[in-house]
Design brief:
Helix content: 10-25%
Strand order of the largest sheet: 4-3-15-8-9-12
Strand content: 25-35%
Structural class: alpha+beta
Number of helices: 4
Shape: globular
Number of strands: 18
CATH architecture: Alpha-Beta Complex
Distance between the termini: 39 Å
Largest sheet: 6 strands, mixed
CATH topology: Fumarylacetoacetate hydrolase, domain 2
Bound molecules: manganese (II) ion
Number of domains: 1
């Protein structure tokens, strides 16, 4: 095959304990999936899960023991952190039942759904798409992927984010409104999941702004933590 220019390289992430890398296909994100975060955003009650996407090349690789650099994005004065559990799909499918979801999961990682909150809020107000608030370049820092067998009890794991050593977000994945299996059921009813898909499962309460010079440290118990500095 010959192209009119070189195609973009495949986006991929390291796999813990393996020399092989995980090639990223799509990035799906779940909105308002922890009750106390839904409340801080002005909503309450259990609503059906809803989704948005980031482009695969929005991934910012955040390697173990390193500090990844995230350039402060353009057009915003209110860049927010959202610490999230990321699910890595290893086997695709559509209309996957929650009871079968586990066999589709390759592993898990720690991720940040970075958000230009001012732009997102303006788009919400106008009933316009969230892309500009959510899908900008480097908006998806993600750590190495831990295969399911080594990830511990991911359904009941502490999730936390510190900024410059101060706790900003702290919760537990057991508080997900729609758990990982239910999320896969809903998502795969709308799209055929493919190997390489990443699912950002939503953030707990405590989202707030970061500025250049800040260092973010994110963790989910059992997974490789990530460190990102804003430049
Ligand atoms: Mn989010």
């Amino acid at each position: 095959m010959r192209y009119v220019f070189n195609p973009a390289p495949t986006v991929s992430l390291p796999v813990v304990g393996s020399p092989l890398r995980f090639p990223v296909h799509r990035i799906y994100c779940v909105g308002r999936n922890y009750e106390d975060h839904a409340k801080e955003m002005g909503f309450s009650g259990r609503e059906p899960p809803f989704f948005f996407m980031k482009p695969a090349d929005a991934v910012l690789e955040a390697n173990a023991g390193e500090t990844a650099t995230l350039p402060y994005p353009s057009l915003t004065h209110n860049l927010h952190h959202e610490i999230e559990l990321v699910v890595a799909i290893g086997k695709g499918g559509k209309n996957i039942r929650a009871t079968d979801a586990q066999q589709h999961i390759f592993g898990y990682a720690v991720g940040l759904d970075m958000t230009r909150r001012d732009l997102q809020n303006e788009m919400k107000k106008q009933g316009r798409p969230w892309c500009i608030g959510k899908g900008f370049d480097a908006s998806a820092p993600v750590g190495p992927i831990t295969p399911t067998a080594n990830a511990g009890n991911i359904a009941d794991a502490e999730i936390s984010l510190q900024v410059n050593g101060q706790q900003r977000q702290r919760s537990d994945t057991s508080k997900l409104i729609w758990n990982v299996a239910e999320t896969i059921e809903h998502l795969s009813a709308a799209w055929e999941l493919q190997p390489g898909d990443l699912i950002f499962t939503g953030t707990p309460e405590g989202v707030a702004a970061v500025v250049p010079g800040d260092t973010l440290s994110g963790a989910v118990a059992g997974l490789t933590p990530i460190t990102v500095s804003i430049k």
